[in-house]
Q: What sequence folds into this?
């Protein structure tokens, strides 16, 4: 498999305080031990229409199944001392609502100012002037990226694939 963003291996995570789904802030550079950061574009919300043309964008769908797969395997990640975080450009309020509705056992991080994604030069796409992250998963140890999975073609299998990679 071609890893489009393999050049990120060895790079430090950005030193930025990101709002979390719990209302706190988290600096990825300061996370001790190993951590997975699955970056995703968007999660739907009851009563809110998806962005115009969302169904026509390859790879846009799948963020909810991806997050739920990480939730289902969360205890296994914990058993091998790996933290899990989801990252998107969505607002803190949006990710908090999603995490609450889906009872996620891990924090989501809001990169609404783009500091995390710009530092790592993560790929984006735009719809009607709104930016969304392209899906990518990075693993870091002590704030340094050790593994990269991009593209993430089947988001619902991402958690299991990353877990197998880390065992």
A:
């Amino acid at each position: 498999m071609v890893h489009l963003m393999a050049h990120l291996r060895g790079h430090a995570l950005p030193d930025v305080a990101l709002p979390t789904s719990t209302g706190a802030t988290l600096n990825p550079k300061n996370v001790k031990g190993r951590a997975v950061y699955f970056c995703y574009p968007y999660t739907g919300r009851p009563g809110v229409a998806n962005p115009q043309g969302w169904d026509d964008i390859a790879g846009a769908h799948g963020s909810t199944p991806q997050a739920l797969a990480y939730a289902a395997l969360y205890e296994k990640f914990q058993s091998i001392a790996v933290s899990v975080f989801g990252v998107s450009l969505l607002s803190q309020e949006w990710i908090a609502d999603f995490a609450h509705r889906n009872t996620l056992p891990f924090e989501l991080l809001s990169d609404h100012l783009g500091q995390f994604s710009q530092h790592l030069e993560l790929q984006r796409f735009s719809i009607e002037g709104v930016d969304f992250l392209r899906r990518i998963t990075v693993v870091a140890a002590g704030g340094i990226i050790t593994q990269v999975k991009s593209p993430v073609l089947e988001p619902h299998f991402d958690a299991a694939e990353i877990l197998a990679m880390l065992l």
Q: What stands out?
A: The radius of gyration is 15 Å.
